[in-house]
Write a structure and sequence with these properties.
The complex is a heterodimer of chains A (130) and B (358). Chain A is of the alpha+beta class. In chain A, 21% of the residues lie in helices and 34% in strands. Chain A is built from two helices and eight strands, in the order αβββββαβββ. In chain A, strand 3 and strand 4 form a beta hairpin. Chain B is an alpha+beta fold and 358 residues long. The chains are: A alpha+beta (130), B alpha+beta (358). The interface between A and B is large, with 48 and 51 residues.
């Protein structure tokens, strides 16, 4: 008759693996929960998502190549705006800052759209605002 | 052996749970979204689920369709497909069948809306040139001159004249022109029609659950796993905030015409893009926006400017007869207030507007 050792539920390596999985899972869940709170400006050029900025970062300026030339975008400090655009009407420049979810800045001739994405308020996602 | 097997099973189960959680955190509920510019406005589309082609390919297809329709329906291109309708009165022409289809749906609304839907305002819109970096109020004589050329009289042009159809459509699809050199402009009807065509294309590509927005026109199709589609309507005097929140069922459209979309302020007066065909000038009826719910985006688009111009007193009986719920947001000295048809409330989740009737 062989006497075996008391069966262990988890070996040390298993515990290490589980700890790693828990950390990874928590990180993913944290991202899932926290992402809507942080509104971000997404830049689209001719339907291609080419950049995104956290709105609450430091104020910075970036340039993107649109259909007519470069469009200069200022982002940070809770908002985003188009500083210069080669569009004849400059409507997108005159739109000023977009600061809230659902806000859009549109340069039609340049085919550039800047859209603020995120939840409208805690726990209330909207599919569209118009 | 038992304990090893048990441990492996537990870890496998944990892995499955964590993988699912991670997958959810990355993919959400399997939605794909895109924004783009076409037809003089912003378009956006969100697809749910998996179709016969990859989601990005489906979005490429509807984006391409929007650009094709922009070419078909643009009134800015003097040699484009619409130019065939700018001929001499009495001519019979054969436009693209899609244009004929739009005209067939539009002409009855011109009459029923008492001419508040006018598809011949391209030159008056060009005179106002609201897209100019330095917009200004045109001379009254210039506006009246264009109204005389279009309707044979200066402002105010009576409803009975405005409601006359500029075309007659024959059974074979040919169109008889009833007005000389009509400054054709399908801006008040084209986007909603285009949004419906894009929605049909997405269904054909295997995406029956989607939302498409083209400017102020939105259509929803199918039902998301997370529930009904929720749409926010902007406060017209504080456009970064939402004044009302509505829920859409599958196959519903919503349209909003607002005086905040294109405008300039001069001496405290708001000059906006919703021109009254009777005067050739921005309407001054106290309405800041009108939102409609309809079975199709095309129907919503055709009726949204008329509902804005008619206002609640003249528009509500018409809306009730059409079975179309409408919310008007009016501007008052104490701020915006809401006035709606009785059917509107069934779709409303919440609003922040005081009632205009209080």
């Amino acid at each position: 008759m062989t006497v075996s050792a008391t069966p262990r539920l988890l070996a040390p390596l298993d515990i290490l693996l589980l700890a790693a999985l828990v950390v990874a899972g928590s990180w993913g869940t944290w991202r899932l929960v926290s992402a809507p709170g942080g509104a971000r400006a997404v830049v689209w050029v001719d339907g291609k998502r080419i950049a995104w900025y956290e709105l609450d970062g430091a104020r910075r300026t970036d340039s993107v190549q649109g259909a007519l030339g470069y469009v200069e975008i200022e982002h940070g400090d809770g908002g985003v705006r188009i500083l210069t655009a080669p569009c004849p009407s400059k409507l997108c420049v005159k739109q000023g800052h977009a600061r809230k979810v659902g806000g859009k800045l549109v340069c039609v001739p340049s085919r550039v759209v800047v859209s603020i994405e995120g939840d409208l308020r805690e726990g209330e996602a909207l599919d569209a605002i118009h | 052996m038992t304990s090893v097997h048990s441990t492996s099973s537990r870890i496998a189960s944990l892995l499955a749970v964590l993988a699912a959680a991670l997958g959810l955190s990355v993919c959400g509920d399997d939605a794909t979204h895109r924004d783009w510019a076409a037809m003089d406005c912003n378009f956006a589309a969100t697809l749910h689920g998996k179709g016969r082609v990859p989601a990005e390919e489906a979005l490429d297809s509807i984006q391409k369709l929007s650009k094709d329709l922009e070419t078909l329906l643009s009134d800015y291109d003097s040699s484009g497909p619409l130019s065939i309708l700018r001929g001499r009165s009495g001519d019979t022409v054969s436009p693209d069948p899609r244009i004929v289809g739009i005209l067939r749906e539009t002409l009855p609304v011109v009459a029923a809306s008492r001419g508040t839907l006018d598809i011949g305002v391209h030159d008056i819109k060009a005179l106002w040139n609201l897209d100019s970096p330095d917009p200004r109020v045109p001379d009254s004589s210039a506006i009246d001159s264009l109204l005389r050329r279009r309707h044979g009289r200066a402002a105010p042009v009576p409803d009975s004249v405005l409601a006359r159809a500029p075309f007659a459509i024959l059974a074979d699809g040919r169109v008889v022109l009833l007005v000389d050199s009509l400054p054709i402009d399908l801006g008040g009807v084209a986007k909603g029609w285009a949004v419906d065509r894009m929605s049909e294309l997405l269904v054909r590509l295997g995406y029956p659950v989607h939302l498409i927005q083209g400017g102020g026109e939105i259509v929803s199709r199918g039902r998301k796993s997370s529930g009904k589609w929720r749409i926010g309507i902007k406060n017209p005097r504080e456009t970064s905030t939402v004044a009302a929140l509505v829920e859409l069922d599958s196959g519903m459209a919503i349209s909003t015409s607002g005086d905040y979309e294109r405008f300039f302020l001069l001496d405290g007066i708001r000059y906006h893009h919703l021109l009254d065909p009777a005067t050739g000038r921005p309407s001054r009826n106290g309405v800041a926006s009108a939102s409609l719910l309809c079975p199709t985006s095309a129907q919503c688009d055709r009726w949204s400017k008329p509902m804005f111009l008619l206002g609640p007193d003249r528009g509500a009986p018409l809306a009730d007869s059409l079975g179309v719920p409408v919310l008007w947001i009016l501007e008052t000295p104490s701020g915006p207030c809401g006035k709606a048809t009785s059917s509107w409330g069934a779709r409303l989740v919440r609003d922040t507007l005081p009632s205009c009737d209080r």
